[in-house]
Amino acid sequence: MSNDNQFMQQRREKAEALADLGVNLYSNTFTPANIVSELLPYADNLEPEQAEESGKLVSLAGRIMAMRKFGKAAFCQLADSSGRLQVYVKKETLGDEIFETFKKWDIGDIVGVEGTLFKTKTGELSVHAKAITMISKSVRPLPEKWHGLTDVETRYRQRYVDLIVTPESRDTFKKRVEIIRFIRNYLSDNGFMEVETPMMQPVPGGATAKPFKTHHNALDMDLYLRIAPELYLKRLLVGGFERVFEINRNFRNEGLSTRHNPEFTMLEFYQAYATYHNLMDLTEDMISAACQHVNGTMEIEYQGTMVNLAPPWQRMTMEESLVKVGGLDPAVLADEEKVFALCQEKGIKLEPLAGIGKAKTELFELLVEEKLINPTFITAYPTEVSPLARRNDEDPTVTDRFELFVTGRELANAFSELNDPVDQYERFAKQIENRGDDDEIHPELDHDYIRALEYGMPSAAGEGIGIDRLVMLLTDAPSIRDVILFPHLKPEVKKQSKKSGEEE
Q: How far apart are CA 12 and CA 137, in angstroms?
């Protein structure tokens, strides 16, 4: 039998012994009146060894995270969702029977405590327990190093344990909530209306990615988990909602990495009578303000590199970046044959029908992207790689589009929207032609969206921001799995005990 199973067996035996003593191991009668964080300020008004009777009467519930037992007394550290506080348990106060029962409790048990606040001789704020109640018995021990899990996969797979024992992980997810709340309030305060659009769609549109496919029995039709909400949000622009946003999940049946999860959270917002220049200004202000809100500064460290999010942010066209950052000769970029030759030299494999715009985009991703550390807007994306963006009036080979890069990663994608139904139809058709018989991507023309454009969509600009990547940046998280509570992983491999064959 493994050590883990031995410890669990010991705990089960202790639980049975407590039950035999009449202890309700899973009671539902204790309701705390206080949380730890609201009690901590009381420390300023207490003196060490001050008469405990003068302390505030409190009741708390939480998990025992540490315990020191002595002959007639014990100290335990109680943790709730807001913090940790020491509890002093004394035999003389509780009585012999209750104290002896308490001594059989374990680290990890969830308990309720009623008592008075006081300060120990060393000045630590504590609760002197007048009564203590078992709420939930822990029959599986916490990790030995209860200050944090060291195995990364275990942290992701057993997030519930990670949240119990790793304060930094809890802080990350609390900060994630604050970031999303700030963005939601920011957009609402700027006149945007939050909406919900379908998660299951008959045509997977709004991006180029492999969708998850399912079948609706009653309708007898295939449906796809959405890869993006874009085309539905723009239908709302047609309907007269001039500023809309959605914060919700997208799904893409593709690979996993430190930057990719099959389901991920996106913010998409659309503004009528605006251009991509307006959205650059909004994005710069919103993200820098969000950083200031959650971190108290706009200059942060990400994985050992300092990043300054204070406006103004750098802006340059893709061609400018290939010259200034990528080190290419402008004469090479002006010659199609030289561009294709350079792609071949760099080992870039292009689709048979790929044009010069696609080639330049691939060179940008290879030579420039990872060098953009401080926030940088890259504009003037080739029309070839921007099927939903408006053509630039002065140069129709590029679009009124930008992508935002920070720490070498794309954080946002935006453009002035294409609202010409004929142009949109032709670009959809071209995109499908370029894909050919690609069952992975399953290209399909959304005729209903074309019909919506035929009714007339106002000039507009729209943007998508990866919430998970933004949270990674603002919390200094190296992997997207660090900011998603329950990331997708390969199936867990059960270990077998060599002696008993029992699963561990």
A: 9
Two structure tokens written together for 245 = 């946003």
pLDDT at 484: 97
| CATH 2.40.50.140 matches 3-142 | yes
Helices (H) and strands (E) in the chain, counts: 16, 18
pLDDT at position 89: 97
Question: Domain boundaries in the chain?
Answer: 3-142, 165-326+368-482
- Please list, residue by residue across 17-35, b when 16 or more beta carbons sit within 10 angstroms of its beta carbon and e when fewer do: ebeeeebeeeeeebebebb
Q: What are residue 33's phi and psi, to 5 degrees?
A: -95, -15
Q: What is the pLDDT of residues 205-249, one digit of tens each?
A: 888 789 999 999 999 999 999 999 999 999 999 999 999 999 999
**CB contact set of 110 (below 8 Å; sequence gap of 6+):** 61, 62, 63, 64, 135, 136, 138
pLDDT tier at 150, thresholds 50, 70, 90: low
Reply yes or no on whether the pLDDT at 259 is more than 70. yes
Percent of the chain surpassing pLDDT 90: 80
Tokens 């300020």 belong to: 41
Q: Are 64 and 111 in contact (CB under 8 A)?
A: yes
Q: State both tokens at 363.
A: 């060179």
Measured distance CA(410)–CA(164) in Å, rounded: 33
Which token pair is 120? 């120990």
Reading the block at residue 107, the tokens are 């680290």
Q: Counting beta carbons within 10 angstroms of the beta carbon of residue 441, is it exposed (0 to 12), middle (13 to 18) or buried (19 or more)?
A: middle
Pick the CATH number of 165-326+368-482 from 3.40.50.300, 3.30.930.10, 3.10.20.30, 3.40.50.2300: 3.30.930.10
Top pLDDT among 489 and 267 is at 267
CA-closest candidate to residue 99, choices 129, 143, 63: 129
CB proximity list for 226: less than 8 A, separation 6 or greater: 197, 198, 199, 200, 201, 204, 206, 211, 250, 251
Q: What is the strand order of the sheet 376-379 is part of?
A: 193-194, 243-251, 263-272, 460-466, 409-416, 401-406, 376-379, 314-317
State whether residue 216 is helix, strand or coil.
strand
Who has greater pLDDT, 443 or 260?
260
Identify the pLDDT of residue 157. 92
Q: Is the pLDDT reported for residue 125 higher than 50?
A: yes
**Cα distance between residue 329 and residue 168, in whole Å:** 46
Over range 45-51, report the average pLDDT: 77
